[in-house]
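Protein folding task:
====================
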Amino acid sequence: MKPNKFLVSVFFIANVLFAILKSYGQNVEFEHLDKSQGLPSNYVTSIIQDKYGMMWFGTFNGLVRFDGYNYKLFYHKENDSLSLADNLIRSLHLTAEGNLLVANESHGFSIFDFESEHFTRYMHNEVDQNSLSNNNIIGLLVDSKGIVWIGTWKGLNRYDPKTKRFDFYNIKSNIMYDSNLEFISSIVEEPDGKLLLYCTGSRIIRFNPPTQTYDFINIPDLPKPKLRLNRGGVLFIDKEGIVWIGSELNGITRLNSSTMATKHYNVENGKLSSNIIMSIMQDNKGTLWVATDGGGLLRYDKNTDSFESFVNNPEEENSISGNAIYSIYQSKEG
């Protein structure tokens, strides 16, 4: 099989197309894939590359495997427990063993077996305390030890693929207006193994897995949104240990977790093209990329401390195909 020929993969785009970004120095061009070429939906929510080099796309209408030339589609089938649990896919991940993990909008998650091409489902069971606490998965992380951490509408779950055991942690606050902190939208791992959680109300929590304890990180000037639009806020830790906090209404906050110094980037101060942040990643050259809802794709320039935006231009064939982006992923080929 020929290797995948594409470079950087980008996006869920509100009106059309999955786009492939090619960067030649400072110049950026986009190629487009859509339903006419084999995608089951133009709404692509997540992207990942498996251990065999295959690209996988989660969509609003099933799962797609792409080898650079051909597509294979996987759908939910009624009365077939070995099929996808739901066609609306939230995110894609790889387990420590390299297996594909598919998180659904409201049906828990599944692990795909490459040989049989069957899915094993993991969902909440009211009569089984050792099951997923809630089927609505928002944030998910496979940590450095292979443990799967799952942020749901109802708290944090720990899943050990070796023992098949679930443990549940209900994150609560003593503050009245933060009574719904169990909604966890993003999870990242710090270098020392502790976890940072983004919870309802833009509260950032540090969770210590060995002791199963947590503390609220006091960031006094962190903007707090009044409502949730899409998936909630997102967290990202770059290669220098800087924490980037993306909100849904107030742009991005850069946090130095050692000094607690912050800097804000938003539309109001002229730093961003949109305040709705959907995803943050860093490529293999150290460049930070940000997906926004309505403001296109952003590229951070560390030297100038500024963001360059790539937005749709109907008059340019090689521009990005839409300005609402949900996912950014870089393939192994760069």
In short: The CA atoms of residues 12 and 44 lie 4 Å apart.
